[in-house]
């Protein structure tokens, strides 16, 4: 397919469809018929978690409702599982109301426009009420058997609306992700080029929902021009930006797609002064493999940039009922690199979401579920925990944004994400991890 576009009313350029989409995204802030592309950080702050800070962002609940209200033709959602009502907990928990509102609105849309859901094949005991309701309402659902395909799971969490708007982040399609779990994500409005690229990842999942094998190589229609070496260049919030999407595992990456692990290592390599990381789990192992396997790709890179480039490294790791005690042995090892006299600066803190006795009764809640990294140059917002399985076997994705070359007065995503990290790092919910830390003082073991 080819097309013609007029530039400033006089010059015509003939181009392929893909180049046309790229050009239109570049021009969204100058062409009157297109809305300005906006990028917005969004968070879920658990009930009862309060910060003495001015750093706040719109809620993920409101972002999802906004996206559904914007939808005119299609909503595509890639997800790990669905529990937007609290039928699975039998707690009659009133804070499930936001999840129920999302589910009901999506069910309404399913009868009026195209709603497609790619979801990891549910285990036998997992609730399926939400998916049955959506299917009965007209949504098209495909389960992806990642266990058979790669021995992993479909862990991705993203939306594509009208091939125009996207959400990507840590929040599952779970009512707890809106009111009882701390989450972080990002919404990009009015960017057809980025939405088209994320749609290619969704279409790969959609294809695998009816396939018993992974194509090698993937057909051309799944390939991308945008990666860590040739990012998409476009204005976001009137700020020049370099952007790309990464994906895992490598077997699901079509031509041109940067694997998620390579994205993470590259972001660390490009840092010049600091690397701040907030993830629920951090393990230099294949967490779910048998027999046990060591996997140190990320751990080695952190030690290397701290030593060779004197980068300041901060890790904010979650601590809750489901935390594996072995994780702290590895974190203590990493924290032991700290030596100010030799300009070695790696520090680790544990983040605990407080819980009342009633809140403790809610399973799989009250945890910081964030999955992001921010450096002096780049904001990385992903969907994976940081252990080997998530990059070798499990399907995940991430958005990588670099706006630091800009001279715009607009606040960059990088600076906003840095402020979120520093708010959490300096809060009363964060405690330094040292060689002498007694974990029972922090976590609910």
UniProtKB/TrEMBL annotation:
Membrane topology of this protein: Single-pass type II membrane protein
Localization in the cell: Early endosome membrane; Late endosome membrane; Lysosome lumen
Record Gene3D superfamilies: Endonuclease Chain A (3.30.870.10)
GO MF entries: exonuclease activity
Keywords from the UniProt entry: Exonuclease, Hydrolase, Nuclease, Repeat
InterPro entries: Diverse_PLD-related, PLDc_3, PLipase_D/transphosphatidylase
SUPFAM superfamilies tied to this protein: Phospholipase D/nuclease
Record flagged with keyword tRNA-binding: no
PANTHER family, sorted: 5'-3' EXONUCLEASE PLD3 (PTHR10185:SF16), PHOSPHOLIPASE D - RELATED (PTHR10185)
Family note: Belongs to the phospholipase D family.
Record protein name field: 5'-3' exonuclease PLD3
The organism of origin for this protein: Astatotilapia calliptera
């Amino acid at each position: 397919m080819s097309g013609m576009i007029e530039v400033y009313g006089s010059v015509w350029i003939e181009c392929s469809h893909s180049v046309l989409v790229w050009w239109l995204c570049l021009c969204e802030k100058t062409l009157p018929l297109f809305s300005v592309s906006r990028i917005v950080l969004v968070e879920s702050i658990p009930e009862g978690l309060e910060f003495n800070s001015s750093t706040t962002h719109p809620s993920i609940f409101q972002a999802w409702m906004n996206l559904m209200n914007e939808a005119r033709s299609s909503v595509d959602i890639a997800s790990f599982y669905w529990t937007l009502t609290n039928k699975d907990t039998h707690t009659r928990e009133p804070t499930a109301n936001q999840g129920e509102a999302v589910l009901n609105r999506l069910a309404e849309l399913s009868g009026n426009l195209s709603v497609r859901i790619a979801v990891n094949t549910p285990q036998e005991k997992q609730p399926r009420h939400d998916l049955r309701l959506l299917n009965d309402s007209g949504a098209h659902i495909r389960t992806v058997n990642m266990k058979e395909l790669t021995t992993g799971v479909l862990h991705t969490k993203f939306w594509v609306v009208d091939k125009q708007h996207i959400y990507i982040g840590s929040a599952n399609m779970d009512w707890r992700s809106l009111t009882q779990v701390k989450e972080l994500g990002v919404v990009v409005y009015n960017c057809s080029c980025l939405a088209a690229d994320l749609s290619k990842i969704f279409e790969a999942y959609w294809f695998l929902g009816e396939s018993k094998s992974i194509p090698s190589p993937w057909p051309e229609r799944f390939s991308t021009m945008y990666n860590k070496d040739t990012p998409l260049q476009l204005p976001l919030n009137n700020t020049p930006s370099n952007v790309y999407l990464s994906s895992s595992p490598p077997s699901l990456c079509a031509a041109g797609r940067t694997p998620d692990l390579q994205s993470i290592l590259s972001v660390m390599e490009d840092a010049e002064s600091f690397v701040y990381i907030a993830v629920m789990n951090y393990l230099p192992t294949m967490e779910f493999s048998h027999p046990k396997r060591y996997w140190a790709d990320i751990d080695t890179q952190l030690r290397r940039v701290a030593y060779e480039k004197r980068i300041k490294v901060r890790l904010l790791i979650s601590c809750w009922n489901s935390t594996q005690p072995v994780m702290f042995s590895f974190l203590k090892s990493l924290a032991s690199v700290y030596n100010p006299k030799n300009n070695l600066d790696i520090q680790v803190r544990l983040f605990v979401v407080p819980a009342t006795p009633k809140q403790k009764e809610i399973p799989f809640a009250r945890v910081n579920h964030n999955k992001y990294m921010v450096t002096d140059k780049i904001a990385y917002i992903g969907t994976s925990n940081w252990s080997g399985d998530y990059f070798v076997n499990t399907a995940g994705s991430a958005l990588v944004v670099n706006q630091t070359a800009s001279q715009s007065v607009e606040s960059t995503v990088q600076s906003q994400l840095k402020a979120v990290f520093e708010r959490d790092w300096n809060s009363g919910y964060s405690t330094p991890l040292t060689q002498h830390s007694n974990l029972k003082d922090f976590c609910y073991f």
